[in-house]
Design goal:
By secondary structure, this protein is mainly α. It has 14 helices and 4 strands.
Length: 331
Amino acid sequence: MRTARFVLTRFAGMALVLLIVTFITFVVFYLLPADPARMACGRPCSPESLALAKEFMGFDVPWYRQFLDFVAGIFAGRTFGTGAAAIQCAAPCFGYDFQNNVTVLAEIGGRIEVSFSVAAGAAVLWIVTGVGLGVLSALRRGTAWDRITMGIAMAGVSMPAYLAGMIGITIFAFALDVVPKSGYVPITENPVQWAWHLVLPWLVLAFLHAAIYARLTRGQMLETLGEDFIRTARAKGLTERKVIGRHALRNVLLPVITVFGVDLGALLAGTVITERIFGMAGVGRLLVDGIASMNLPVLLGVTLFSAVLVTIVNFLVDLCYGALDPRARLT
């Protein structure tokens, strides 16, 4: 009963957050000077042709009507235009790209594999590496290992993503020629080449994020090791391995998982800089192309899709809290 109430409450909160994000994003894009109807009208574009384009695309009604039509389209689909020229956008309809004559969701679906592949592999590397190095640094506080690890972590935190990507390409792709320079191979075509083309993006993203997780884990571990319950566990005669693994690490992982949920949700929505540097056509690249061409339906659809991913990942993080901390299940 309590679990069902928790899930329903969280879903209601997710729906409210997504509605607010959709509204704010829609208003922001509506206020932009770009006119999708004028872009679709072509040149020369007479006032009559522009009016027909706005009517066909649904931009001839007030902004609040456009917002309500957009939200309704997510659940029930939409129809643009009338008669034989009408365009159907099945639910969930995140908009229609009139510049490329395809639904926004179809464009996202064609690129999501790239973003998911980059994010999933990098996330596994950085969570294992970052947490592991952070724990070891805390247990060896003040040693040469601790200073070297934190020095490297500081470099990773301070380095911009584009610089890390360019350094990785220069060293491993051009100088050593041990990994591909760019491109993406679908996993269904060749799993080995899929992984091989993703090694460098994984390592770059893992280096940048693992640095943050190493510093966070180290600080949390040092704080936890000074708590009363750790001293009690040691006084009971538990081995140091059980004290660290069973008691300390669980408490350390709570804030780490919170940050991990935010980072993973953002990466799943598209690694803009990484995809650009390594020549991968993911969701991030779709967003950049939409900004360059002022393709408002694509910008709105990708933004909302990203918000959905981040919200879902944060919901899963809340479930993980209950598994790691019994106090979270009680509340």
